[in-house]
Write a structure and sequence with these properties.
With 309 residues, this protein is of the alpha/beta class. It has two domains: 211 residues, 3-Layer(aba) Sandwich (Rossmann fold); 60 residues, 2-Layer Sandwich (Alpha-Beta Plaits), CATH 3.30.70. The protein is built from eleven helices and 13 strands. The radius of gyration is 24 Å and the shape is elongated. The protein starts with a strand and ends in a 9-residue tail after the last helix. The protein binds adenosine-5'-triphosphate. Adenosine-5'-triphosphate binds next to β2 and α1. It holds the Pfam family ABC_tran. This is ABC transporter ATP-binding protein.
């Protein structure tokens, strides 16, 4: 398990990570989501002891990363897919890593097969495509057979087949009981891969929730209505607790109700409807709305209770 408590990182006047607390539990894939610049990489670097927090703490299996005697057996990480010597072959790169960490040689062959690089093991890694580099980085993360995996945007550079492959891999690693923490800025991708989500915006926690609840909580179903009696219908809907936004003289966008309720209410009051349609926000839209709210919130008041949403 990974546990962050009040984790904060400031770079001069920039607060990249702001009082972040969350737990990442074993046996499931946890997606770490946020728009570009939200502070994901900074957080992961602190989890891995690559950056020191300005305040707060983060532990893996109860200890800070640096306190683990054999970290590669505890935590596998992919942070920067370019972090290898380009002149070495894929196998040489992994052998060097295995050797310096007391990992048996046979693991090199095993992980290369596992990530689909078995056939190119002898090729110079410097000539690899971005997708192949990502696979090599994942192979390195798996080398010590660790119970905890931390991957920063592993989908970057992968083709559609690679994306399906990594999705399956992450799920199978979680099903084996491992802790899998994977960052992304794509809600749609995480919705298909993760069981749980930690969402941040501007370094602050916005949501710590199951994917199911996130979708249910944030998807805002709208009803669009066109009627010549817009004022009358708006009054009736508001009276029933719905939220009504008038777009123009005849058009309304209604939330907090559903299409059949609007239709029945209109019929009961002999209101003519020219159009009546349900429209649900896509997952990506819900995510953008959640993170946009955090930006507005920051601009408005500058306090930190965004996590309450
Ligand atoms: N070394 C640094 N010095 C100064 N500012 C930094 C440094 N590293 C990150 N930042 C700033 O901290 C904020 C968070 O950056 P971070 O890279 O963690 O975000 P991210 O969510 O990983 O975004 P991306 O998906 O674009 O990588 C940004 O405003 C960034 O400019």
């Amino acid at each position: 398990m990974i546990a962050a408590e009040g984790l904060t990182k400031k770079y001069g006047s920039v607060t990249a990570v702001d009082d972040l607390s969350f737990d990442v539990l074993p046996g499931r894939v946890t997606g770490f989501l946020g728009p570009n610049g939200a502070g994901k990489t900074t957080t992961l670097r602190m989890v891995l002891g690559l950056d020191a927090p300005t305040a707060g703490r983060v532990t893996i299996g109860g200890r800070p990363y640096g306190a683990h005697r054999r970290p590669l057996f505890e935590v596998g990480a992919l942070i920067d897919a370019q972090a290898f010597h380009g002149g070495r072959s894929a196998a040489q790169h992994l052998l060097a890593l295995a050797h310096s960490n007391g990992i048996p040689r046979r693991r090199v062959h095993e992980v290369l097969e596992q990530v689909g690089l078995g056939d190119v093991a002898g090729r110079r890694a410097g000539g690899f495509s971005l997708g192949m580099r990502q696979r090599l980085g994942i192979a390195a993360a798996l080398l010590g057979d660790p119970p905890v995996l931390i991957l920063d945007e592993p989908v970057n550079g992968l083709d559609p087949e690679g994306i399906v492959w990594i999705r399956t891999l992450l799920k199978s690693l979680a099903a084996e009981g491992r802790t899998v923490f994977v960052s992304s800025h794509l809600m749609s991708e995480m919705a298909q891969t993760a069981d749980h989500l930690v969402v941040i915006g501007r370094g602050r926690l916005l949501a710590d929730t199951s994917v199911e609840d996130f979708v249910g909580r944030t998807s805002r179903d709208e009803v669009r209505v066109v009627t010549p009696q817009a004022t009358e219908l708006a009054g009736l809907l508001t009276g029933q607790g719905a939220h009504v936004q008038a777009v123009d003289g005849q058009r309304l966008v209604v939330t907090g109700t559903d299409v059949s309720t609007v239709g029945r209410l209109a019929a009961a009051h002999r209101i003519v409807l020219l159009e009546l349609a349900a429209q649900s926000a896509s997952l990506e839209e819900s995510f953008m709305e959640l993170t946009r709210d955090s930006a507005d919130h920051t601009a408005d008041s500058g306090n930190v209770d965004g996590a309450a949403r």
